C-alpha cells in the first residue's frame, strides 16, 4: 500500500479544493461455493476502488474510480471539485480530519493470503467426508480475502494497512429434513479447524428426527453464539452508531447512563481484540479505538465518524465508512463479555426450554423498541429435564432484542467469533426467559 500513498502524496497538491481526501481500498477475493457435497462455483476477484472527497467551503463533492494511475486520479480530483460547485452548503460539516499515525494493523497473515483453490477444494472434501459418514451432504461456502486500505488528505493524514480473512459457512443436511449449521472466521487460515466445524454441523443434524410443532408462546430459550450475534448485529445497526444519536432515532438516545440491559451484559467495540484484529484505522484515516457501549447493563456510548462526532461535540472513534455511504458509523468489532458456565451446563440446568442455533433472517418491526421478526433455522431443539429431547419445527421470532438482553439469565464462558455483513462479533451463548416464539406460517 506504500506505493499508493506515494501516488496520493504526489497528486494531492494539484487539487484546487480547500481540502481534499484520497482513499483507496484494494481487495483480492476468492470464493468456493458447494452444494450436495459438490463444488459448483469458484470465483476470484482482484480490484481496487479510489474515492476522492473534495471540500470547497462547506460544499462536498465525492467521486470514485477503479483506475489506479496518476492521470485517472488527477481527473478524479477535478471531478470531485467540480461536483462541489453543484452542491449546497452542508451546515453540519466542519472539516476533514488530521490524524496521528495509527498503530500497525496486525490482521494480515501470509498463510491466508496464499490459500489456493486446491486448498479450498481440499477443505470442502474434508467437511464432506465427515458429513458423509452420517449420510449427510454439505452445502455452503469458503472464502478467503486480503483487503488493503490507504488514506491521505491535505491536512496531513497518512494511513495504510492490510488484513486477511478466511470464512466458512456450512450446512449439513439430507432429504429427510435433517439439517445442522456451523460457521467460522479467522484472520489465519491455519487456525480454522475444518473438522470441528463439520462435526458441529453434523451433531445438530443427527438430532433432527421426527420434529415436533410447538404452540406460540413465551419460552425459556438458549441462544447459541450465532443467534446472539444475529441480535447484536441489529443492535449495532439500530442504536450503537452516531447517526442515530444525532437524529434521536436510536434506542441509546437520551439513555446514556441509564440501565437498558441486564446486569450481566457488557458489550464493547474492540477492534484490537486478539480474536478480531480489525484494520487499525477507518476510511477517514482516524485510528480506531475501544469504545464501551454497554457496561453491566448500563448504556455508556456509541461509535462516531468525524461528521456525526462534530454534531455531538464528541471525538471520532474511528468508525467512518467510505465517503459515499448513507448509513453513518456503526460498530464493526463488538466483543461481549462471557459468563462462567459451559453451554452443556446451561442446557443441563434447564428444566424446559428451546435451544436455538441461529436465525434464518431477521427484519425490523419497531426500531425504537428494537423489535424484530424472523425464523429459527438449522437446529432448533426442545429441552426437557436438562437434555435436548426432540427437534422443533422452525418457529417465528417476535421479540424486542433489548428485552432479550434484559432477560438474560446466564451467559456461557465459551465465546465464538461470528462474522455478519462485515461486522465481527465475539460472543457467548445466552439463556433468556420470556422469549416470544410463534408458529411459523
Q: Specify the number of helices.
A: 10
Helix/strand-derived category reads alpha+beta
C-alpha end-to-end distance: 51 Å
Give the helix proportion (percent range).
Answer: 10-25%
Q: What gross morphology would you assign? A: globular
Q: Major sheet: size, sense and barrel closure?
A: 6 strands, antiparallel
Overall residue-averaged pLDDT value:
94
Please state roughly what percent of the residues sit in beta strands, choosing from under 5%, 5-15%, 15-25%, 25-35%, 35-45% or over 45%: 35-45%
- Major β-sheet strand ordering: 3-2-1-4-5-6
- Tally the beta strands: 17
Integer count of domains: 2
Low-confidence stretches: none
Radius of gyration: 23 Å
H/E series:
HEEEHHHEEEHEHHEEEHEHEEEEHEE
Amino acid at each position: 500500500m506504500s506505493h499508493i500513498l506515494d501516488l496520493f502524496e504526489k497528486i494531492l497538491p494539484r487539487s484546487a479544493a480547500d481540502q481534499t481526501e484520497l482513499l483507496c481500498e484494494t481487495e483480492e477475493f476468492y470464493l468456493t461455493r458447494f452444494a450436495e457435497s459438490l463444488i459448483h462455483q469458484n470465483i476470484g476477484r482482484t480490484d481496487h476502488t479510489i474515492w476522492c472527497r473534495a471540500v470547497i467551503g462547506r460544499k462536498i463533492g465525492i467521486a470514485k474510480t477503479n483506475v489506479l494511475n496518476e492521470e485517472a486520479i488527477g481527473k478524479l480530483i477535478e471531478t470531485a471539485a467540480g461536483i462541489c460547485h453543484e452542491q449546497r452548503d452542508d451546515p453540519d460539516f466542519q472539516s476533514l480530519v488530521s490524524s496521528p499515525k495509527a498503530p500497525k494493523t496486525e490482521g494480515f497473515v501470509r498463510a491466508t493470503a496464499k490459500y489456493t483453490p486446491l486448498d479450498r477444494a481440499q477443505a470442502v472434501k474434508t467437511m464432506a467426508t465427515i458429513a458423509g459418514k452420517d449420510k449427510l451432504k454439505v452445502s455452503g461456502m469458503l472464502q478467503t480475502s486480503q483487503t488493503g486500505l490507504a488514506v491521505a488528505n491535505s491536512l496531513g493524514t497518512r494511513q495504510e494497512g492490510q488484513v486477511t480473512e478466511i470464512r466458512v459457512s456450512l450446512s449439513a443436511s439430507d432429504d429427510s429434513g435433517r439439517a445442522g449449521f456451523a460457521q467460522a472466521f479467522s484472520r489465519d487460515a491455519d487456525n480454522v479447524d475444518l473438522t470441528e466445524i463439520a462435526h458441529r454441523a453434523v451433531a445438530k443434524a443427527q438430532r433432527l428426527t421426527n420434529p415436533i410443532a410447538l404452540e406460540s408462546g413465551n419460552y425459556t430459550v438458549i441462544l447459541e453464539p450465532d443467534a446472539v450475534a444475529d441480535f447484536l448485529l441489529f443492535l449495532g445497526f439500530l442504536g450503537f452508531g452516531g447517526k442515530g444519536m444525532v437524529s434521536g432515532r436510536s434506542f441509546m438516545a437520551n439513555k446514556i447512563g441509564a440501565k437498558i440491559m441486564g446486569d450481566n451484559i457488557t458489550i464493547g467495540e474492540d477492534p484490537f481484540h486478539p480474536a478480531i484484529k480489525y484494520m487499525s484505522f477507518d476510511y477517514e484515516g482516524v485510528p480506531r479505538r475501544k469504545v464501551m457501549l454497554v457496561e453491566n447493563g448500563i448504556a455508556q456510548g456509541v461509535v462516531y465518524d468525524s461528521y456525526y462526532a462534530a454534531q455531538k461535540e464528541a471525538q471520532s472513534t474511528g468508525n467512518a465508512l467510505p465517503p459515499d455511504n448513507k448509513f453513518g458509523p456503526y460498530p464493526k468489532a463488538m466483543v461481549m463479555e462471557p459468563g462462567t458456565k459451559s453451554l452443556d451446563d446451561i442446557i443441563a440446568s434447564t428444566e424446559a426450554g428451546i435451544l436455538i442455533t441461529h436465525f434464518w433472517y431477521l427484519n425490523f418491526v419497531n426500531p425504537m423498541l428494537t423489535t424484530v421478526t424472523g425464523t429459527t433455522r438449522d437446529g432448533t431443539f426442545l429441552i426437557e429435564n436438562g437434555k435436548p429431547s426432540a427437534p422443533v419445527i422452525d418457529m417465528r421470532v417476535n421479540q424486542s432484542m433489548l428485552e432479550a438482553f434484559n432477560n438474560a439469565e446466564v451467559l456461557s464462558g465459551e465465546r465464538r467469533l461470528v462474522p455478519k455483513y462485515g461486522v465481527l462479533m465475539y460472543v457467548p451463548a445466552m439463556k433468556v426467559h420470556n422469549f416470544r416464539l410463534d408458529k411459523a406460517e
